[in-house]
Amino acid sequence: MPSVSIPSTVLQRAAPAELGFDVGRLGRIREAIDRDVAAGLIPGAVIGIARHGKIALLEGYGFRDKTAGTPMWADAVFSIASMTKPMVSVGIMMLAEEGRLLLGDPVSKFLPQLAGMKVAKSITSDTLETVPAEREMTVQDLLRHTSGLTYQNRGTSAAYRAYPVHGTSAALSKDDFLVQLGKAPLLFQPGTTWEYGLSTDILGFIIEAVSGQRLGAFLSERLWQPLGMADTGFELTDHTRERYARALPKDPLTGDPLVVHHATGKVSKWESGGGGCVSTVADYLRFSQMLLDGGVGNGQRILGRKTIALMTSDHLGDKIVNRLTQTMDPAFAGYGFGLGFAVRKEQGLSAANGTAGDYYWSGVYGTYFWNDPTERMTVVAGIVAPGPLRLRYRQLIRSLVLQAIVD
Question: What is the 3-class SS of the chain, one letter each residue?
């Protein structure tokens, strides 16, 4: 299998052994990915690992386009889907640090179309009945996914069907989308239950309302350019299109066609803060290392240290119903949720290896990152696995990386 590495422009490289890795054990990453490429499970992958502020590994494996036989280089561009969410969450916290919004502010203060939303009596009934919300959803609710908002495609009952279609397939303008969303029911009373959905898209709309900029322009000016994330954005460009990593034609488990939305050439009518970006592993390492370093990246202060600490703390506690493992990934039991990330609360329970206090997020097309503050390590995986296999790689990459740490 082709396996190609390139010099890192993210952080200074160091020998893996100097960063506490056993080189032989680290080689198991290549072996495992090569096996899966040969078995036809994935086309290829890019794995980036930084520890103690230096790059231990940034390497491509397999194919960027298996059909064309194009090798996977380490600068491949991926549709990162929901890994857009942590970046948008950082954008909201920038505005909070400037006093331009409060986490306790009602969402309707910025988006009046979402005032007075009702709550579904049942999330399983084929008939929609609603009750008044006991309180309005807040900015904090959006950040920790306790707003009550969901995605239309997460269920088939009347409550889910009332939601407008999101993403590149959406036919609505942003304004029309918000009007239609305001008529849809919340699945749960705000602040009571973790439910994955449109919350971070709404955060993106709030950034636009407060800043007066398009979401991509704001993130480019305030986050991507300061960190040197030149290959990150909401659309492919002439510079990134030729390096775009493509999925296999069909899911190896189900036989279903695999479609990654940037590969279709469709352009969304609005920039999705919940899942619209493309990026490279190297670019995302710049972002994740900034988080690990307490808000400083590329020599610039992006967020305050205490803000990062707040974001990476659990915000669900014992009273909010946590549906993360029930509805997303059963292997990650023992995780709560912060302001943009799933946060590990204890060493046990989870089938995935890790450390109490680590935090992660992932994308529906297969990309994944996690930070381990105790080990001073950040890991980013670029994998195009849009189907059920993506759950396997979230565990596998953790296992392969952590077993290689010896010091």
Answer: CCEEECCCCCCCECCHHHHCECHHHHCHHHHHHHHHHHCCCCCEEEEEEEECCEEEEEEEEEEEECCCCEECCCCCEEEEECCHHHHHHHHHHHHHHCCCCCCCCEHHHCCHHHCCCEEECCCCCCCCCEEECCCCCEHHHHHHCCCCCCCHHHCCCHHHHCCCCCHHHCCCCHHHHHHHHHHCCECCCCCCECCCCCHHHHHHHHHHHHHCCCHHHHHHHHHHHHHCCCCCECCCCHHHHCCECCCCCECCCCCCECCCHHHHCCCCCCCCCCCCEEEEHHHHHHHHHHHHCCCEECCEECCCHHHHHHHCCCCCCCCCECCHHHHCCHHHCCEEECCCCEEECCCCCCCCCCCCCCEEEECCCCCEEEEECCCCEEEEEEECCCCCHHHHHHHHHHHHHHCCECC
The amino acid that residue 109 corresponds to is K
Whether the model clears a pTM of 0.85, i.e. scores above it, the answer is yes
Using alpha carbons, list the distances in angstroms from residue 157 to 122, 130, 146, 149, 167: 9, 14, 20, 14, 20
Residue-range domains of the chain with CATH: 3-84+214-402 (3.40.710.10), 89-211 (3.40.710.10)
Q: Do 117 and 368 form a contact (C-beta atoms < 8 A)? A: no
Would you tell me how many other CB atoms lie within 10 Å of the CB of residue 69?
A: 9
Q: Alpha-carbon dihedral of residues 58, 275, 223, 145, nearest 10 degrees?
A: -110
What are the pLDDT digits (tens) for 243-287? 999 999 999 989 999 888 787 777 778 999 999 999 999 999 999
| Average pLDDT value for residue range 213-217 | 98
More confident: 10 or 197 = 197
**Structure tokens, 334:** 């023992």
